[in-house]
Amino acid sequence: LAFLRENADKLSLNMENVVIGGPSAGANFAAIYGLILSDANYAKRVGVSPSIPRECVKALVIDEAALDVLSLSRNAGLKGMGEAWLGVADLATSKKMKLYDVGRQIRSAYISAFVNASNEEEVFKGTQDSICAAMSRADVEFSRYYRSKEEAGALGHGYMSGFAGNAYARECYEQMCAFISRKTGIFKEEE
User: Each residue of 12-25: pLDDT tens digit?
Assistant: First the structure.
């Protein structure tokens, strides 16, 4: 973000109207950076100084984050990955993991977000539920997208990359663009 801000003119960027987002690990970073921007005490605890002012970030796109401790602890593969990522022996009791469990940290200054989850692994829905419940309690605007297996069939992790041929991915993409448009004024539909 610092690079983008420093090169905004050269790259024709409006760094006062920013959306931070990403899929999978990028969603984890976007959700955590939302905390860093919205809570100075949290930023201090994780040792990160924001490189962009909070008021310049209009929205987050959290596309399949895996940050809910309880959900991660129930998935052996992701549990092991999380333990390796944080360098801890037990994810469920890790103080480090609780620090990155975004749903436990959200307060009213958190940034509005679009939150998506696939339906094949519980951790993505669990994280979506945790983040959205916290945003609701904190009275932070959000929009969520989720379709059950019964409704949409299997939507695996990363299903959004197939939006050209998947009606549910396309629907999610359209809702995400509408949310971004409401928050930033970009992606306005043509008359």
Answer: 999 999 999 999 98
pLDDT in tens, 129-146: 999 999 999 999 999 999
Q: Biggest alpha carbon distance in the chain?
A: 56
Read off the tokens for 94: 């890790």
Sorted by sequence, the CB contacts under 8 Å of residue 36 that are 6+ apart come out as: 42, 43, 46, 48, 50
Give the Cα separation of 73 and 181 in Å (integer).
36
Tracing tokens 């998947």 back to the chain, one arrives at 166
d(CA 168, CA 155): 8
- What's the CA gap between 111 and 141, in Å, rounded? 8
Query: Distance between CA atoms of 159 and 171, rounded to whole angstroms?
Result: 12
Mean pLDDT of the chain: 92
Q: Tens of pLDDT along 179-191?
A: 999 999 986 655 4
| DSSP bridge partners of 19 | 59
